[in-house]
Amino acid sequence: MTRPPSTPTIDIHAHLLLPEVEETVAGRPGLVEAKGLDARRNGPAALAVNGPMVGARVPKLTDVAVRLAAMDAAGVDVQLVSPSPSHYHYWAEPQLAEQVCRLTNQSTAAHCAKAPDRLHGLGLVPLQHPGLAVALLNHALDQGLAGVEISSHAPGPGSTRAVELSDPRLTRFWARAEETGALIFLHPFGCTLDERLDQWYLSNTVGQPTENAVALSHLIFSGVLDRHPGLKLIAAHGGGYLPTHIGRSDHAWRARPDARDCAREPSSYLKQLYFDSLVHDPHVLRELVRAAGPDRVLLGSDYPFDMGTEDPLGALRAADLPDADFHAIRGGNAAALLNLA
């Protein structure tokens, strides 16, 4: 494959660890309970692996020089850097949640500013407090970030209902994201199937694609994407199970009156969304490209975690796509989203 010389290779799924955020929440009410829930959902075997795995990757997650060297080794020109989802802290009360998001936004921007031609960043908003989301999206954009990262849902504040992505309380957030052209990176953290997935790392291998499918289905079936057709939302992990099983959603839309709150068949909305290429199977990647369109898939590695890939270009090549599709996914689509010349 020949490479168009003007098109950079762009990895849109790469993470950053911010120790200052963890220092801010240390000892706060709610943290112990949140960690306990995470422990139950993952199980002891996964926790025993996770600690050393993350510890060994701290330099890659914090040191810009190490990050750039890894990018060079992988043939990546530009990364879109998002905070580790462990920084969401959706348990936090409003004042602490705002502090966490502002600190995350500022620290992510500072990290990227050390290599501005190669690093672009995403911040956070407190999904559990929808009333704060617009102001903190604005704050992220004011720092020069491209947008924000969110999970698939958040616990409701206090005893209120969980905040799903279809929640009317998020209407102003979606409107502001559409108005500004901000990127919204959907990256689940945790799975509500809880202890059913607490062995064999099912909390991640099954939980992540499940959460993606549920969250995207909320956006589609509720009509959020009808009301905000210009929303720039990128789903991590190829959108989970939804793109390859969207036929069942289409059938429900046709057969069930209670599944008709969206204007069109659900499969049509895949072409309104963006997806990263991290699906770990060339056959699945080809199907994702077929279902969503080659202009809607972006290169992603999940750098530097063990459930990612150190060779995202190799994984993309394995799908044996047409040259034009390969280069669009390699960097052309992301360059357009990021407004890179």
Automatic annotation (TrEMBL):
GO BP of this protein: secondary metabolic process
Q: Which domain of life is it from?
A: Bacteria
Keywords of this entry: Lyase
**What molecular function does GO assign, one term?**
carboxy-lyase activity
Q: Which SUPFAM superfamilies match?
A: Metallo-dependent hydrolases
Q: Which residues form the Amidohydrolase-related domain?
A: 10-340
Q: What GO cellular component entries does it have? A: cytoplasm
Q: Which PANTHER family match?
A: 2-AMINO-3-CARBOXYLMUCONATE-6-SEMIALDEHYDE DECARBOXYLASE, ISO-OROTATE DECARBOXYLASE (EUROFUNG)
Q: What is this protein's record name?
A: Amidohydrolase
Question: What is the organism field in this record?
Answer: Streptomyces capitiformicae
